[in-house]
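Let us walk through a complete example step by step. Step one is to write down the protein sequence. Step two is to encode the small molecule, zinc ion, as a SMILES string so that its atoms and bonds are unambiguous. Step three, shown after the inputs, is the structure prediction itself.
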Amino acid sequence: MGGYGSGRYFRYNTKCTVEDCRSVDANDFARWKMFREGQRYTSTRWTLGDRETGSCGVITQIGDGLTCCAFLFNNRRVPVALSWYAPGYGGRRYFFLCPVCHRRVRTLHFKGRELACRICHNLTYKSCNESHSFDRLYMHMAESFHRDGKGVSWTAVKWYMRNMIRSVNKRPRRPRGRPKKCR
Ligand SMILES: [Zn+2]
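Step three: the predicted structure of the complex.
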């Protein structure tokens, strides 16, 4: 087994992570008021750091009998059915129906040109991939801290980094008056 820097790090995992793919979130669309009555159009873009990794157009058609949306991605139009229910606090809560398995899902992912849910894409969340893929990096970091006198365990580095990543990625708070999400 080579040490850190031998190149092992930069191999792709065989399973694509959710973050590697481009995703669309029904909650975001709700926040963008895309699920209001009538036809609406917007575009969404994905970024990785400062770099744009892609964009797609979104059309929603909300009416009494007809609720659907379509994604315009790579010159293709992918229609997606919507599902909704009326929660206690009023209004409607919308979900996508996965175009492949028709499961009701909050997020859909583009992998290549295919749009489907996480299960169909056989994705794993980065958080579980992450649990070991960076261990050797953390060990390396802990080693370099050692040189400055006081030692640090690599698990402490991992814990610190994980919390930092979490606080950076923290989603904005939901609007007040909504119940807590329970699964
Ligand atoms: Zn699916």
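Step four is interpretation. The CA atoms of residues 49 and 72 lie 23 Å apart.
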